[in-house]
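Weekly modeling sync, notes
Attendees: S.R. (lead), two postdocs, one rotation student

Agenda item 3: backlog of single-chain predictions. S.R. asked that every request posted to the team notebook include the full sequence so nobody has to chase files. The rotation student volunteered to paste the first one in as an example of the format we agreed on. Action items at the bottom.

Example entry:
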Amino acid sequence: MDGRTLADAVGLLSGGTAERDLDAFRVGHPGVRARLIRQREEYDGSLHHALLLKDGSGATVSLSWCPETALPWPLRGVHRAAEHLLLRVNGVDTPVARAIACLDFIWDESRAADRLVRDGLVREVLEESPERFTDAELQDAMNAFRRARGLMTGEATRAWMDRNGLSHRELEELVATEASVARLRERVSAGLVEQWFAEHGHELDVARVVQVALDAGEGTRSGFAAKPEDFLVAAERAFADGTATSGPIFVTLRRGELDTEAAGQVFGADPGTVVGPVETKDGAALFKVLAIVPAVLDGTVRDQIERRIFAEWIERRRSTAKIEWFWGTTDRTN
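Predicted structure, as returned to the notebook:
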């Protein structure tokens, strides 16, 4: 790290406008990865900044600057890390409040621990290369956020905020985070969607079926059969006698959601055919196939592919990440 870079970094921290001037610093030092760390002191609300700098050697330089009347960075915070932190991923802290928001609103497709780690990995990238939005874009994101949760009036939105313990500022931050994740997902998957579809598009073929989930012994399952024209009658009888369980009836399946054998049975059947019982990850089920629809690269499929590419990208980052948990009786690092 050369002296000019360090001098400019100190100037950035001491100027009082570090967040505003960070982009200019990055432009002036393109070979250096810079991440601004913010810490707000709870008792007086004061904000302190530190700067992490990493150059091509892989070493990290940590800098902080403190005015005469403020508390230096190493002396801030009077609690043990384990008392207010849940997780740290590559130096990005996840406090309990952030974890709750993450669990409830941002990720919706994986285990809680995985969601938290993924959120930390994503925020690491967004802190180094933040997404910028206009006021109009943020308003559009807020409108979409409210529509997705059925918050069509101001009164409903305020009630939802009260129920979840969110201030207006925290709601805006939450929406900005969701919009940033979506923008980053587009950035990561840019130029890769068409190739992925060419190689794996068949995994997104759709089967529209009538489904009966079975909850019985193997003998009952093997004895459960119905002609296509008697399927619904047999399904009603199975539910009445306990052979079938409650659950969705009309279901859309993607080929990639089924194992190879089950996918072959369902997607190899002609419309109108009764298939099964078929073993799925949720147990045995009987299907009446209504339609088989090959995947086309429309908006819905493109969104699913972007999410898969994004998930694979996160997993690659996770494989090299330093992950520290701060919960339970001992601190753990892996």
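Discussion: group reviewed the output briefly. The chain has three domains: 1-78, 81-200+298-328, 206-293.
Action items: rotation student to repeat for the remaining queue; S.R. to check formatting next week.
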